[in-house]
Specification:
Length: about 230
């Protein structure tokens, strides 16, 4: 997969380097020489250019990328122009960062395929950590729906998936169980290894230290969190 990231501030730089680490071919673009220099050894190509200069942008073969991410956050006009330029040059999928509702609306009007609201999403993550401290990871994959990794703790410990009635009571599906399994090392010491059951069966037992992966709606997760908070 070929991805271009335009705007190499904190958000753009982190996105570009993580994509590269995960195996994507990444073209990182900014008009700031210092930011480009900082990233040149951590992506496939780092290019310093003005994204409003059509000839310069064409020189990067931008039309060949699978996804373009416009990560510009501090210059609304520049981010809008970048999205318009990418659409003009035939980029199929454009993910753009918006800082407010008007910015969001205009980006969609000029051709953004998907909008990221970084500040709102971070606020949601922080709020979730405070309200539901038992949640280890939370991934939003569609509007109003999440995949959540959590520990169900003592309230569900020792119950099978059927006995837990999580699906019946909360309309949430358990898609995986991660267990710490004790074993003896070659030198005779006690240790633990992690085993992931990605096809749990109805009679599999939930232990208090298990990490459970569930999928479902935010509203249903909130109902489960309320039960877990009860003493």
């Amino acid at each position: 997969m070929i991805v271009t990231v335009i705007g190499l501030g904190h958000f753009g730089a982190k996105t570009a380097t993580r994509l590269f680490e995960k195996g994507a071919e990444v073209i990182a673009i900014d008009n700031d020489d210092e930011l480009v220099e900082r990233l040149k050894d951590r992506v496939t190509h780092a290019v310093c250019l003005d994204v409003t200069d059509e000839r310069a942008v064409r020189s990067t073969n931008i039309s060949d990328v699978d996804v373009a991410i416009v990560a510009i956050g501090d210059n609304v006009e520049m981010s809008i122009m970048a999205v318009a330029m990418l659409r003009k040059l035939g980029v199929g999928k454009i993910i753009a960062r918006a800082t407010n509702n008007l910015h969001d609306h205009v980006l969609k009007e000029v051709g953004a395929s998907e909008i990221i609201r970084v500040e709102e999403e971070m606020g949601e993550i922080i709020a979730s950590k405070i309200i539901a401290p038992h949640v280890l990871q939370r991934y939003n994959f569609a509007a109003g729906y999440s995949i959540v990794e959590l520990k169900l703790g003592k309230k569900f410990a020792g119950k099978t998936l059927v006995e837990s009635q999580i699906r019946q009571n909360f309309s949430l599906n358990i898609v995986a169980l991660q267990k710490r399994v004790p074993y003896i090392t070659e030198d005779g010491k006690s240790a633990f290894k992690v085993e992931i059951n990605d096809s749990p069966l109805p009679m599999d037992v939930i232990e208090s230290d298990d990490i459970v992966v569930l999928v479902g709606s935010e509203a249903n997760f909130d109902r489960l969190f309320s039960v877990l908070e009860e003493k």
